[in-house]
């Protein structure tokens, strides 16, 4: 047995990825659960509209971070602010009692706001929009769609590519008269299609089983999903370029998946996280897809109001997908690039 | 005209030279054999010729230029690992390759035809190799590159594959084949012998073995004789019950056997390619 233990330690010492996992995972989990695992929302963004907007804004406790005071606006204007995800709660003055419109798609903030407003008794009439019963599944299903796309895009795609490397067929592809771009596109298109089908199934099932509404445009949703898929497929291609075996690819893909689950705002609200880890959440693509999917499905948000997550995801898609595919091309046939560099002009077809 | 050319090619991995200043040319209708022990640099050289590995220095050319897509279209490659999809059937594998080359799948014959709908992973190795050949030849390439193409194949199937190779050369293709089966080497028109990354001999079988001698030893106590010579560090090979010592000093070998009371007939004979390789390998490690 001593020999076995010794052998295992020697192997482990040389397996840098596993050692990294042994060191990084506990640290990551400690940091995440220590700083990010917080359901308590300490401050919410608020707007106050209507004739007494300025007075009410003065009277609200600091818990309400008033970012918009619009005496000239009305209930419709307040709703628009909520739909555009600019605030978590909007107070409409000029009625008795004051009307508080709460964004139910931001579950933890909404729960916190309702609890806070209930203390005020009859002074405020609370109306929860987009998720009136504050049902958890309504918020989770749009996020889970993103998680499933991430799973297929990173894990399944990277395994598919690494399997070619392991079987030696990648080398065969490299000597065939196929463009590297055709190899990559031909390889990821089936996963793109499968992920899209999965997305439709999960969305429809979520609506049928959990009564999750779909209030926005399916086209905006589909566009967001397509851009997000390019990001996660790019991550899958990238993982395949740094993995020699299926085991390594799965290891790396899980390392990328775990922070997305925990830090994208899907489970723990981003606003409640310590600033030290919140910025990680803002680097993750799932954070922005969740903004789009929840926005479209629950709030019926327009493309314009989701411009920021769309812009960030688009930049990520270009950078990650292009970077990964260029890396894949380089790995496919490094000798050919070198030969092209040396070849006199005009000899390359 | 050269179909495949390496010009003073070197490839280093760290401080190790896997291929060291090697040049070769393969012309039309020619079967060139690349010989060498395991680790001699054969596959590394092949990968550089195919553009799969960058050269550290020197130049390689496929059909007169870099291995771009148009030139690769005129090349067939059978890798050592076969390059087949185990979870596709015989027919599906062939359909994929022929589609990539833009040609119609050739009709399958013999046992492959019977197994057209069987998953490749379930085929015996011999048939997998045969399929790999059919796929590589489906577009009638001008250059055929074969890396240990008959490895793990029985003698009869091996003979069949060599018939195919010869037929391709007769059609005008240039063939570069790596092997460590010495029986196969004699089927090549020209041989290149690699040892520790360097090209150490080139020409026909006779050119390669020129000057190489061996001792053929016959004894009733052949097993003991082999053990004694091996223990004494002699470059000894066994073929059936016949012992051969590559190079070999008659006096020294005779003395070793006599010392152990083994009666034997020791005869100096011309050496083989295998014995030349054995001597080269020992010279390198010594």
What's the SSE blueprint?
The complex is a heterodimer of chains A (349) and B (286).
Chain A: H1 2-14, H2 16-36, E1 44-49, H3 53-59, E2 64-70, H4 75-83, E3 89-92, E4 98-103, H5 107-118, E5 124-129, H6 136-167, H7 169-175, H8 180-210, H9 218-241, H10 246-263, H11 275-281, H12 285-299, H13 307-332, H14 334-342
Parallel strand pairs in A: 1-2, 1-3, 4-5
Antiparallel strand pairs in A: 3-4
Helix pairs in contact in A: 2-10, 6-8, 6-9, 6-10, 6-12, 8-9, 9-12, 9-13, 12-13
Chain B: E1 4-13, E2 16-26, E3 31-35, H1 42-49, E4 57-62, H2 69-72, E5 75-78, H3 90-101, H4 110-114, H5 125-137, E6 143-147, H6 155-170, E7 174-179, H7 182-185, E8 190-195, E9 198-203, H8 205-209, E10 213-218, H9 222-231, E11 236-239, E12 242-246, H10 250-259, E13 265-270, H11 273-285
Parallel strand pairs in B: 3-7, 3-8, 5-6, 6-7
Antiparallel strand pairs in B: 1-2, 1-4, 8-9, 10-12, 10-13, 11-12
Helix pairs in contact in B: 3-5
What does this structure look like?
The complex is a heterodimer of chains A (349) and B (286). By secondary structure, chain A is an alpha/beta fold. Chain A folds into 3 domains: 2-36, no CATH class; 44-129, no CATH class; 136-342, no CATH class. In chain A, 66% of the residues lie in helices and 8% in strands. Chain A is built from 14 helices and 5 strands. Chain A has helices spanning 2-14, 16-36, 53-59, 75-83, 107-118, 136-167, 169-175, 180-210, 218-241, 246-263, 275-281, 285-299, 307-332, 334-342, and strands at residues 44-49, 64-70, 89-92, 98-103, 124-129. Chain A has a 5-stranded mixed β-sheet with strand order 2-1-3-4-5, with helices on both faces. Chain A is elongated, with a radius of gyration of 25 Å. The model of chain A is unreliable at 344-349 (pLDDT under 50). Chain B is of the alpha/beta class and 286 residues long. Chain B folds into 2 domains: 4-208, P-loop containing nucleotide triphosphate hydrolases (Rossmann fold, 3-Layer(aba) Sandwich), CATH 3.40.50; 213-270, UreE, C-terminal domain (Alpha-Beta Plaits, 2-Layer Sandwich). Helix content of chain B is 35%, strand content 28%. Chain B has 11 helices and 13 strands. Chain B has helices spanning 42-49, 69-72, 90-101, 110-114, 125-137, 155-170, 182-185, 205-209, 222-231, 250-259, 273-285; strands at residues 4-13, 16-26, 31-35, 57-62, 75-78, 143-147, 174-179, 190-195, 198-203, 213-218, 236-239, 242-246, 265-270. A 6-stranded mixed β-sheet of chain B has the order 5-6-7-3-8-9, with helices on both faces. In chain B, strands 11-12-10-13 form a 4-stranded antiparallel β-sheet. A 3-stranded antiparallel β-sheet of chain B has the order 2-1-4, with helices on one face. In chain B, β11 (236-239) and β12 form a beta hairpin. In chain B, α3 (90-101) packs parallel to α5 (125-137). The longest helix of chain B is centred in the middle third of the chain and has 16 residues, at 155-170. The model of chain B has no long low-confidence stretch (mean pLDDT 87). The A-B interface holds A 167-169, 171-172, 174-179, 333-340, 342-343, 347-349 and B 47-48, 50-55, 59-60, 65-73, 75, 77, 79-86, 97, 100-101.
